[in-house]
């Protein structure tokens, strides 16, 4: 059917008002599970140090009646350390951009500050988790805080680091995740004195872990789910949110930043974390600082300086290089 002859349509109309939503949709994940759950403390130097010690292993200890006592050798504590790392996000917004009315935000400068702040937190999350050794830096290179991967002493399907933050862990060849890998890593941490209560892993491995428990021939114990409330329909359970291991209950916590970073190590790693044996020191909290004005624009930097303290490296564990 043809339109009316000489009919005036929107295709030739001039001056029509724009129809633009007054909302800006941004679904990029901004959660930082590791940074958020980790206790914070005030750091006061760029080199942060802490001490650890261990007890002697149990031995047969039967002594003669009336025996003379020879003092045992005293073992000193071990001093560990990590470097602080500076991270920032910057922005510049022209005065005109802030002055005009724009859909979805009030002031462009304020909007960019909030957006950059979220991006900074995800950068910090990535830095705290990655497998990178510490670096004291220089006038030409930035200081780097050793990430969690550089402190691992208990690993399955890989080679552990020295547990000092000075080197990194290495995954073996990529292989399918098994329950025995998780159980072995958890057992290593438990025997050493740790009690991991959080399993942190990328989304793809979260699905893999749930599949381990829900397969037709599961290698874990039976999955149970209690339905409560009368009149409610049945629920098809397709996930596992907690793992009741032989050495305690572990919360299964997917971390989207481990996948978003495109880091091959984090994308194939499952961390078993003892929350009581890890902290983040803040030499400089996350703050917005306005920069000197240049021309007709407003500039700012959102910065933080932080350090990862893995209080007892042997308290944690990981499964590396799995799919």
Instruction: Catalogue the unreliable spans.
Output: none
What is the percent of helical residues? 10-25%
What overall geometry do the principal axes of the alpha carbons give?
Answer: extended
Topology as a string of helices (H) and strands (E): HEEEEHHEEEHEHEEHEEEE
Strand order of the largest sheet: 5-14-11-8-10-9
The CATH architecture name reads Alpha-Beta Complex
Radius of gyration based on Cα positions: 27 Å
Structural class: alpha+beta
Quote the CATH topology. Answer: phage-related protein like fold
- Annotation, overall tally of beta strands: 14
Give a short account of the largest sheet: 6 strands, mixed
CATH class term: Alpha Beta
Distance linking N and C termini: 57 Å
Tally of individual helices: 6
Query: What's the structural domain tally?
Result: 1
Beta-strand share of residues: 15-25%
Mean pLDDT: 91
């Amino acid at each position: 059917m043809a339109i009316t002859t000489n009919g005036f349509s929107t295709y030739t109309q001039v001056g029509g008002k724009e129809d633009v939503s007054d909302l800006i949709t941004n679904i990029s994940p901004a959660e930082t599970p590791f940074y958020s759950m980790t206790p914070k403390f005030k750091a006061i130097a760029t080199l942060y140090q802490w001490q650890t010690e261990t007890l002697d292993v149990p031995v047969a200890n039967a002594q003669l009646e009336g025996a003379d006592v020879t003092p045992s050798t005293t073992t000193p504590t071990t001093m560990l350390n990590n470097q602080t790392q500076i991270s920032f996000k910057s922005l510049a917004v022209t005065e005109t951009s802030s002055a005009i009315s724009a859909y979805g935000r009030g002031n462009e400068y304020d909007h960019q500050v909030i957006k950059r702040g979220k991006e900074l937190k995800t950068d910090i999350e990535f830095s705290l988790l990655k497998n990178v050794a510490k670096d004291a830096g220089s006038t030409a290179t930035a200081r780097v805080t050793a990430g969690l991967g550089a402190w691992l002493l208990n690993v399955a399907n890989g080679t552990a680091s020295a547990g000092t933050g000075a080197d990194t862990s290495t995954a073996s060849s990529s292989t399918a995740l098994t329950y025995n890998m998780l159980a072995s890593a958890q057992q290593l941490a438990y025997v050493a004195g740790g009690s991991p209560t959080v399993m942190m892993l990328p989304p793809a491995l979260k699905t893999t872990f749930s599949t381990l428990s829900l397969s037709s021939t599961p290698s874990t114990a039976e999955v149970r789910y209690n339905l409560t409330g009368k009149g409610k329909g049945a629920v098809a359970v397709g996930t596992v949110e907690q793992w009741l291991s032989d050495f305690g209950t572990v919360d299964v916590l997917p971390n989207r930043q481990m996948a978003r970073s495109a880091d091959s190590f984090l994308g194939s790693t499952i961390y078993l974390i003892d929350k009581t044996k890890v902290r983040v020191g803040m030499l400089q909290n996350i703050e917005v600082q306005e920069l000197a004005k240049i021309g007709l624009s407003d500039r700012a930097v959102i910065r933080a300086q932080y350090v990862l303290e893995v209080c007892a490296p042997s308290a944690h564990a990981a499964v590396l290089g799995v799919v």
